[in-house]
Every structure is written in C-alpha cells, then in structure tokens.
Fold this sequence. Notes:
The chain has 1 helix and no strands. The chain has one helix at 18-71.
Amino acid sequence: MYIPYIEDTDDWVGTPTLLETCRHQLMMCENEIQECTLRPREERERIFTLAEFLIEATKERGALRDQLAKQL
Length: 72
C-alpha cells in the first residue's frame, strides 16, 4: 500500500498551534451562535410589523365598508 509523503510543517513560521486553532474554532462557533440568535429576533420584529400593518389595513377596510354601506 502506497502512503504519500506528508511534509511536516509544525516548525514553519506562521503555522497556528493547536491552542490557536481551538481558539479560532471557538470564536467561529460563538459568532455563528450569535448570528443564529440575532436572525430570529430580527424576523420576529418584521413579523410583528407586518401584523400591525394587517391590523391597520383591516380597520381601514372596515371603515371603508361602513362608508360604502351608508352610501348605498
């Protein structure tokens, strides 16, 4: 079985240590969690705004129906 040569790069300058790699992964996970909590909050605000628009439109529709009924 052929095993390809994998160059040992642990001593290269700029190669992150295991601790640095773990910290970076942790930071990425924290950012993703923050994004996953922020996005639903923003969407709930948008839904609430749309619900308010619907309530206003329903009230306006009712008022216009009443005006039309009075005219007929």
